[in-house]
Protein 1
Amino acid sequence: MRMARFGCFLIFIYLSVAVITPILLSTGLLPDPEMGLDSPIYSPPSFAHWCGTDRLGRDVCVRTMEGSGVALQVVSLAVSLAVLLGVPLGMLSGYLGGYFDRALVLLMETLYTVPVLLLSVVMAFLLGRGILNAAVALCVVYVPQYFRVVRNQTTQVKSELYIEAAKSMGAPFLWIIRKHLFKNVLNSVPVLLTLNAADAVLVLGGLGFLGLGLPESVPEWGSDLNMALTALPTGIWWTAIYPGVAMFGLVLGFSFIGEGIELITNTKTSIK
């Protein structure tokens, strides 16, 4: 329980930063993350620039803060789309069976065997840059995971006596899915969702590092780490440490929530 609370606390901090940063930018209390021509390049952390400046003179602190909102936006959209696609497909495939099930299983297993980063790179390359395109590229990666989990649970639950009784009474299969299957096969989805969100933060950073994620004008931690790579050997550490720590903290928050939910679920199951 403490693990989940700490994870929620971390995510709350990132959400607060994501909400406050645009307000501060619009009021002029924070400098524009893309305007750095009047600032010295590679300036170390100081009172004027708390986290220093990068090779273009842009404020690292502001870019890192705005990057939290971008990461949350892309990741939340990606995992939401994956759930909305993977869960219904898994239930329909597991319940109906037959050729429909075989075709979906073949497709999902093929996607599942491809490494996550490689598949996301291919999708990002095909779709191009952009927040929605990056979310779709990540969504394709995680749909097979929800499909496999939900399908396996559906095939187990559909053989229960109350399902057979509903079938014998002529209940439509969509009604059976909504009334009986839906609430019984979603136990592991919250855990999978949070763990996928943590993984999606890293994959999004990997796409940005490779220059395939978001446009260059959008503050994003992976692209900032890419730009910091050449300066790091010369002792300019601040352009890499702050985006890296921000990414690590967001991954840690989602991971702690997922692990906490899993511990709570396992505890309730063992008590029953």
Protein 2
Amino acid sequence: MSLVDDIETFVRRRYLFVRQQLRHLQAGLGYLSGRPLPETRFVLFGRGRSGTTALVSMLDDVPGLRCEGEVLHNYVPFPYRHVLGRAARCSAPTYGCKILSYQIQDVQRPPGRPEDFLRTLHREHGFRILYLRRTNLVRHALSNIQARRDTFHRKKSDPDAGPAALHVDPTHVVEWMESSERLGAYEQTLLDDLPHLPLTYETHIRDAEAHQATVDTVCDFLGIESGPVESSYRKVAPPALRDRVANYDELAAHLAGTQYETYLD
């Protein structure tokens, strides 16, 4: 890495740190302001690489709805106040934000049991819960692996670039799937006895033709009027696993006879 790359990395990290601190300050001021919260509030909950970014983009297109991204990506001393403060700063009648399960488990330190985090937001602060998950564990694992090398979702304005096939370590893929299953079990402890709208990447996000119906379903759950939407993100991963994985036959042989074999094309 060159000196210029080092400087750019340092500057970017400092910028992200300062931006996060500013947002935390703004949320704190919003919480202390005493302003009423938007009439309708919700959390988009799930795992990373499950279509949450695309859904945030679609929901943010709905008139009168403001949906933020990962408001708890970095540690904040008072996560409940942070979420409430972000909501208080919203001028739209409907406010939503994305919170990923690992952020509750590993990043934040809410008072009480972390497993009660969503219940508290729902029962004490009126947040409704959308739960988006990805059912195909092989594709989910590959998406996470790819995300550490490149990105499978780009802005529509970005130059076209065909995605290169991944060469993967089959053992690493299994490790990702096992980790995802553990996180999925943890998510169920947060959702236990909690009313929520279940959504899946495969049914509601993957195909563009389903996007309008997905947003309509969410708006009906929230009790608000829907509107025409278009995600500002486009999927660029090749559709077939054989096209996506350079050593597909090796991966298939490794998964043969396991519970993960059914996720292969």
